[in-house]
Amino acid sequence: MAPRTFWKGYMKLSLVTCPVTMMPATTEGEKVRFHTLNARTGNRVTSQYVDAVTEKPVREEDEVKGYERGEDDYVFLEDEEIEAVGLESTRTIDIDMFVPDHSIGWVWYDRPHFLLPGDEVGQEAFAVIRDAMAATGTVGISRVVMYRRERAVMLKPRGKGIVLWTLRYGDEVRDEADYFGKVADDKPEAKLMTLVRKLIDERTTAWETEMVSDPVQDRLLDIIAAKKKGKKRPARPKPQAPQDGNVIDIMTALKKSIQAEGRRSSR
């Protein structure tokens, strides 16, 4: 069953406008979730803000956002002041520039969403924008209010639709040169590369969604099912014994790995 519409609005390129709808491309709806309960009464526990100094509960109408400018010194901001700095239109994706596809590094990608025509009338305009981006190898850049904040977004054509990615803010992304620059620039031996490539070939297979299954959730569901039936909790798997810490040379390790792969393939 397709999820209900998450966002409705318009996609605009210059004078071309079409209605669109958007849904998140991912979901956490199937995740096992827990409530915090009072073990004595079985009732749910609710959270409440407490004054850090007086330790008394704070009423919701007394809560205000503050920016710390010094120790115990804050600038107060009302919700209306924060909302006033957002985009005037929260329902229009106005594509004001394009950049080459693949020029935006993966680290900037935040949340994916499926974007599709909002009605039959707008399908032609939607299709021409989508196909033109695909033909030119570009992605669109825009800004839109989502999740109560103004976000930069990237529009990437995919099949019959468009994937809209929210992009991370500039201060959220670290420079990889600060980390990878410390790694030695030594080139591995050709013989080692040959053996590793052979090992990769042995283990290369088609992508399947089962590769990203959640074993912890599966075990939690087993425990919950057992408790519903009044059974004992399934036995916890024994931890594996630590491997031998002896250091062997890479060439020997690769040769043993390839031999093991060959035996596994024959089975």
UniProtKB/TrEMBL annotation:
Q: Where is this region: Disordered?
A: 227-248
Which residues lie in Basic residues bias regions?
227-236
Pfam families in the record: Ku
- Its domain of life reads Bacteria
UniProt KW keywords: DNA damage, DNA recombination, DNA repair, DNA-binding
| Domain Ku residues, every copy | 55-185
Q: Work out whether the entry's keyword set contains DNA-binding.
A: yes
Q: How does it assemble?
A: Homodimer. Interacts with LigD.
Regarding protein family, the annotation reads: Belongs to the prokaryotic Ku family.
| Function in brief | With LigD forms a non-homologous end joining (NHEJ) DNA repair enzyme, which repairs dsDNA breaks with reduced fidelity. Binds linear dsDNA with 5'- and 3'- overhangs but not closed circular dsDNA nor ssDNA. Recruits and stimulates the ligase activity of LigD.
Q: What is this protein called?
A: Non-homologous end joining protein Ku
- Source organism of this protein record: Paracoccus acridae
Question: Where is the organism placed in the taxonomic lineage, from the top?
Answer: Bacteria, Pseudomonadati, Pseudomonadota, Alphaproteobacteria, Rhodobacterales
